[in-house]
């Protein structure tokens, strides 16, 4: 009886030794640890940290060293900037979007960046609203990019923006914000709504949230009569609902389709051993265990399929959302430049015609030309953020004493600056409302342009778009006393204009006599790289405000 027992014990010992040898051959840590420093965006870092914990416990060995993965969180834009500056310290980077990588490649140091090596998850960019308010949107906003643009368009004063307030993420700091900008811009241009897009972007630039957490929290706070709607990633909504189940948010999927965050992997290390570790961990991220952890955290697979976290009863659509064609690198770079230029600081002096004809009635309305243009000009103030610098002069012959055809009403300065107990913006609104036409006044346009252009040239600011905006119902100069002649004004502008310090004239003329002076007014504007607009009716001036805003994107070479 002892002999078979002794044999069984011996066999067990031998099997144990064999298992130990086999295990340690695959998990040999005799050489110590091989650290792999991973940096990931804050949304996916918790899930990656959990995956890394399981990976470390499994003792993955590279050249007799066990890989030890640590996962730090850092905003993708910050990591990107460090990369572009050659100061990245991580070995392995999981960003939230390839779109961000494309935008970095457009920078001066972009060519030196390593290539992306595949994606590990996706999350579509969607519209979002508080669950309690979603039902109110049915009559005001259908889930689509075109509807969002219409609601955000500051120039569409009678549109859905009366009932809906759109919030956005800064596309220069947030990949979901950049994806939303690209999706909205692409669909707007396909629908021939370029001007509406400009109006929407100007409005959204003043409604930016710092991150998805702040944006989603603001959707559930009641403020005013308008329903807030945001744009963020589907996974961000899931994470919000997990943390704040008492104030849930639902995802609204744009009918045109959308772009998705794709969480690309980029291997940054150049060390041979660490490269092997990075390749091994990258392989682990494609395993079923890792995929389940990501799906449970609200992410979709690379194929767009959702897990149990994204169900209809939780405010989501499990079906894979329709996808828009992803933009190429050149398109991404142009859109980033567009956003940057559109949101450059503004320095604008408005010259407002107060000659006698401004007291005439606008056909089909109960307003005079002065009342109508003042109302539209006040609306136009909404295109500019508080940091913009603006001022107002009125003009008509002998307006400020004999021979002086212009008068400063509000000096040029920040809209938020206080003047006599009120902000400059409030002063402008008040001044526009009180302005009256000078019944005996002619236009006196040329003297006014020369004086204003001289003043703005002296006070030119490099970090802003410097513009002289002229609003007139006349056919040009109309100065019985002479003053600056047409040819003299053109010669002055051509001599004074400096393309390296562009001060551009935008001239908007309206009224039945405006077309008579079209050639001269166009020559005046073109001499400074600007544009002259002739309105068929005074209400068309709203449209021209946006066209003038579009020119910010190409100045000073819009016609080159």
Provide the descriptors you would attach to this structure in a database record.
single chain, 560 residues, alpha/beta, 6-stranded mixed β-sheet, 5-stranded mixed β-sheet, 19 helices, 38% helix, elongated
Task: Describe it.
- It comes from Nonomuraea monospora.
- Residues 347-549 form the VWFA domain.
- This is Substrate-binding domain-containing protein.
- 38% of the residues lie in helices and 18% in strands.
- It has 19 helices and 20 strands.
- It has a 6-stranded mixed sheet, with helices on both faces. The chain has a 5-stranded mixed sheet with strand order 2-3-1-4-12. Strands 5, 6, 9, 10 and 11 form a 5-stranded mixed sheet that branches.
- A hairpin with a 2-residue loop joins strand 2 and strand 3 (65-73).
- Helix 2 (45-57) packs antiparallel against helix 12 (288-296) and helix 14 runs antiparallel to helix 15 (424-434).
- It is elongated and about 100 Å long.
- 45% of the residues are buried.
């Amino acid at each position: 009886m002892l002999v078979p027992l002794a044999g069984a014990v011996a066999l067990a010992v031998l099997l144990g030794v064999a298992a130990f040898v086999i295990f340690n051959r695959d998990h040999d840590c005799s050489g110590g640890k091989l650290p792999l420093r991973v940096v990931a965006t804050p949304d996916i870092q918790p899930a990656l940290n959990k995956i890394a914990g399981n990976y470390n416990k499994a003792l993955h060995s590279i050249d007799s060293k066990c890989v030890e993965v640590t996962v730090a969180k850092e905003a993708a834009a910050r990591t990107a900037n460090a990369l572009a500056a050659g100061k990245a310290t991580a070995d392995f980077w999981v960003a939230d979007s390839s779109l961000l990588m494309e935008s970095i490649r457009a920078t001066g140091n972009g060519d030196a960046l390593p290539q992306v090596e595949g994606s590990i998850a996706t999350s579509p960019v969607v519209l979002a609203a508080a669950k309690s308010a979603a039902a109110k949107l049915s009559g005001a906003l259908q889930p689509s990019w075109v509807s969002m643009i219409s609601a955000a368009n500051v120039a569409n004063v009678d549109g859905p923006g009366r009932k809906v307030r759109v919030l956005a993420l800064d596309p220069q700091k947030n990949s979901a914000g950049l994806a939303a900008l690209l999706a909205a811009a692409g669909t707007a241009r396909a629908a021939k709504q370029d001007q509406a897009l400009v109006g929407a972007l100007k409005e959204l630039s003043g409604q930016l949230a710092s991150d998805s957490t702040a944006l989603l929290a603001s959707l559930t706070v009641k403020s005013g009569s308008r329903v807030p709607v945001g744009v963020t990633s589907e996974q961000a909504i899931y994470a919000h609902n997990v943390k704040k189940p008492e104030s849930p948010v639902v995802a609204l999927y744009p009918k045109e389709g959308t772009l998705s965050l794709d969480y690309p992997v980029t291997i940054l290390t150049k060390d041979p051993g660490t490269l092997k570790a990075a390749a091994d961990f990258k392989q682990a991220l494609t395993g079923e265990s890792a995929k389940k952890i990501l799906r449970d955290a609200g992410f979709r697979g690379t194929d767009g399929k959702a897990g149990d976290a994204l169900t209809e009863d939780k405010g989501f659509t499990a079906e894979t959302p329709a996808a828009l064609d992803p933009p190429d690198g050149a398109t991404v770079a142009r859109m980033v430049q567009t956003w940057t230029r559109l949101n450059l600081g503004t320095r604008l002096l408005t010259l407002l015609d107060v000659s006698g004809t401004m007291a005439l009635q606008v056909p089909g309305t109960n307003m005079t030309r002065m009342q109508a243009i003042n109302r539209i000009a006040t609306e136009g103030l909404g295109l500019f953020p508080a940091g913009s610098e603006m001022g107002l002069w009125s003009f008509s012959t002998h307006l400020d004493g004999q021979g002086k055809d212009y008068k400063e009403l509000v000096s040029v300065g920040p809209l938020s600056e206080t003047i006599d107990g009120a902000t400059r913006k409030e002063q402008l609104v008040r001044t526009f409302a009180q302005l009256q036409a000078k019944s005996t006044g002619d236009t006196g346009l040329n003297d006014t342009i020369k004086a204003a252009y001289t003043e703005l040239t002296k006070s030119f600011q490099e970090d802003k778009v410097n513009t002289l905006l002229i609003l007139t119902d006349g056919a040009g100069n109309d100065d019985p006393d002479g003053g600056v002649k047409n040819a003299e004004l053109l010669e002055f502008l051509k001599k004074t204009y400096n393309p390296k310090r562009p001060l551009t004239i935008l001239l908007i003329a309206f009224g039945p006599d405006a077309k008579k002076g079209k050639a001269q007014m166009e020559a005046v504007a073109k001499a400074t790289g600007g544009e002259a607009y002739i309105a068929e009716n005074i209400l068309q001036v709203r449209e021209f405000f946006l066209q003038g805003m579009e020119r910010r994107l190409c100045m000073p070479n819009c016609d080159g």
